[in-house]
Design brief:
260 residues; alpha/beta; TIM Barrel; RibuloseP-bd_barrel; decarboxylase
Length: 260
């Protein structure tokens, strides 16, 4: 079994347990459920830099990145740095994250927040909304076209933006539909962990212009952004490069300074 299949198998067990612990009604009664969400897609369209900065403690490809940073400070630092949005990994087992991280970030900043998760059930979208997210991620590699349609339409009914992530042409063709806002190309192969910006470059011309294009993973310098911008990318998701430092916000600030 590859790592992605393993993550999804574990996620199914986790989501079933969560559903039995916290009923849908309770999520819908969260004060955050009624909050007006902020569109990340709109922010990216109007940005010169397009940075989406991630909170990421560890990962299957790198094990430990940084366990010492405080998500409240990281969110504030990213906001002060002028990023367009923040991504928060909420998976516990493989990334050391949690829904509490999302809630803490919500309390700390007014950025559009992306719940970075392995979404396999509508219930996780209700959780995203109840804990303060503005955007959800759908990963084409783990979903059927019908599931992508069902989850993206449900997310839109909750006023959440949808970022659909692909890694190859087949996933892209399977996924294109009007209920998506952003098309993300993951430069990391989630089965082998190989990273190449050529993935974003190669798929760019196949993405219709109606979607905001986002390049994800393996971006570690300004040159990479300059290389990707001519391919139409407006968003750049960066995790490890900021999180491996002692001050993720300051690192993002210097990065953005260099881009302007
Ligand atoms: O990062 C991983 O090792 C990973 C493994 C399996 C599934 C997902 C994974 N990462 C999620 C992400 O998409 C990245 O955290 C995000 O794009 C930022 O990447 P990076 O800038 O390379 O930290």
């Amino acid at each position: 079994m590859n790592i992605l299949d393993k993550i999804v198998a574990d996620k199914r067990i986790e989501v079933d347990l969560r559903k039995s612990l916290i009923p849908v009604k309770q999520l819908e009664q969260s004060v955050l459920f009624e909050r007006n969400t902020i569109s990340l897609a709109d922010k990216l369209k109007n940005s010169q830099t397009g940075i989406i900065a991630e909170h990421k403690r560890r990962s299957p490809s790198k094990s430990v990145i940084n366990q010492n940073l405080n998500v409240f400070d990281v969110a504030k630092g990213y906001e002060d740095a002028g990023v367009c949005g923040m991504s928060i990994l909420t998976d516990g087992k493989y990334f050391g994250g949690s829904l509490d991280d999302l809630l803490t970030a919500r309390a700390s900043c007014n950025l559009p927040l992306l719940r970075k998760e392995f979404i396999i059930d509508e219930y996780q979208l209700l959780e995203a909304k109840a804990y303060g997210a503005d955007v959800i991620l759908l990963i084409a590699a783990i979903l059927t076209r019908e599931e992508i349609k069902q989850f993206s339409e449900f997310a839109k009914s909750l006023n959440l933006d949808v970022l659909l992530e692909v890694h190859n042409e087949e996933e892209l063709h399977k996924s294109i539909m009007p209920s998506l806002d952003m098309l993300g190309v993951n430069n990391r192969n989630l089965k082998t962990f190989d990273v190449s910006l050529d993935t974003s470059k190669g798929l760019s011309e196949l993405i219709p212009n109606d979607f905001v294009k986002v390049s994800e993973s393996g971006i570690s310098n300004m040159e990479a952004i300059k290389e990707l911008q001519p391919y139409g990318y407006k968003g750049f998701l960066i995790g490890e490069n900021f999180m491996k430092t002692d001050n993720a916000g300051e690192s993002a600030k210097q990065f953005i300074k260099g881009l302007l």
